[in-house]
Amino acid sequence: MSFWTENSLEPKRSYRFRLGSVEGLELGDTGKSPYWWSAKKVDKPSFSVASSKYRLINHEINVPGIVSWNPIAIEIVDVGKTVTNLLDQFKSFGYSPNELDSDKGLAKAKGLDEIGNIRIEQISGAGEVLETWKLEGAFITEIRFGSLDYSTDEIVTLNLTITYDYAYLENGG
Prior knowledge:
The chain is mainly β. It has one helix spanning about 80-90, and strands spanning about 15-20, 40, 45-55, 60-70, 70-75, 120-125, 130-135, 140-145, 155-165, 165-170. It contains one helix and ten strands, in the order βββββαβββββ. The longest helix is centred in the middle third of the chain and has 11 residues, at about 80-90.
């Protein structure tokens, strides 16, 4: 039965969400917080299933293969020390722009997963958690620091791409 004919059902709204990490990556001037309050937009997790074709005499049979979790995109508003904090976090992953000849590199073992296990909470109008997606082994694979433009007065936003090992859903409430 659809929610239009059942008055006790309420559809989930795309603007009711919280994004955070267990360890509380500091993105602004608000100090360590479990939530990224400057998050403007976030993709929910998605996956793809590889398929293989097998041939049996005159028939082709498709069978499911490996599950691959797709990266998510996060758009955050550039507030306070957001850029500095992101760059500091990236340096803790092993990145050093001044040491080009160094043998250091990016690796999970060196703390690349220190942004913590990302969680995306979808909430109701009453503030109750309807569902929580947890991304395990998450790390930043791309940071775009936004664009500047004299012809507009829009807010500067940063775009992050997060890759993770897998995600799972916890229902709230």
